[in-house]
Structures are given as C-alpha cells and as structure tokens.
Design a protein that fits this description.
The chain is of the alpha/beta class. It is built from 8 helices and 7 strands.
Amino acid sequence: MIVLDVESTGLVPETHSILSIGALDLEDPTNQFYEECRIWEGASVDEDALRINGFTEEEIVSPERQTEAGLVQAFVAWATDRPKDRTLAAQNPSFDLEFVQAACKRAGIECPFAKRTIDVHTLVWLHMTGQGIVPPQNHAHSAINLDAALRYCGIPEEPKPHNALTGAFCHAEVISRIAYTRKLLPEFSTYDIPWETNR
C-alpha cells in the first residue's frame, strides 16, 4: 500500500498545481518518496493553501525547482518500481489521487493508480464505533480530521505548516495502529497505542 500526501496551491486539480508529493510503502516504510516542484504556468494559487503548506510565492515559481510534470513522472517511477501493492491510502485519498491524475494528464503520462483507495477517516470511524465510542461531529458531519485521528491513536497533532512527507508519515502510522495494532515509524515509537495500554 502506498500512503500518499499531496500539497497543492488549492483544491481544484484542473486549475491548481501540485507543490509537493510525500509517500511511503506501508510494507517497507523505509521506502519513501518526497519531492517538490514549481507550479505549472497559469495555475491558480489560493493564499489559504500556501498558509497551510508553508510554501512562499517565490518558492512556487522558482525556475530552480523541477516542473510539476517532472515531479509526477518521478513519483510514478518510484510508485511502480518497488511497492508490491499500489493501492493508495490517505486521509482523503480522492483529493490526492485526483491531483496525481490531473498532473499525469498535463504531463502526458498514464496514471497507474486505481480508484479503489483506503482512507484514514473511515478506518478511524470504524475503529471508534467498534470500541463503543461515538465518533465526534461538527455541524452534523464527522469531525475526524487528521489531527483527530492522530490524537485517537495516541500521537500528537501534526506539526504546522503541513508537509507532504510528514503527512504521509502521520497517515501511515494511524493506518498501522488501526489496522494492525502495531507501531510503524521510529518518529512515533515513544507514543503508546491507547487501546493496548487500556487492556
């Protein structure tokens, strides 16, 4: 399984650009990918997105950075090389997958990922209900964002600004703890799994 996190200039894959991709292979978490790029010419930029991911306007247009096409080609090459299972997993995998699909289309390459994905939100919701916990809501909608998922799994909230590789690490650790009751990454090894310590 490829645990993925994409940082972008906004929410619309057809008009906004990827800025960075972070990923790791859940079966071999030492097999990691992280690269950044400049925006494609004419891409829209949402200032709120830059506040979340910490990129500056100067960084996202720097000619010293590779193109979005170069980034997505490198990611596809990594993803189709070693990971045996290319199922994508993320907090909101449709967002990440749609950005990769749009970038592949702009680059003129085939996107090798299927639409069937694993999402952290559903895994945590199911685990909570299995434990007899009522999942939190906000305005009559689920409130299980990544920070809520991390707290539920005994891990501190993700550092800000948001980084794609850090995001992928967080998603992967939550998935491992929820699906296998197993710690995954050394960055989180000092944090206990709450439902193990409560037995």
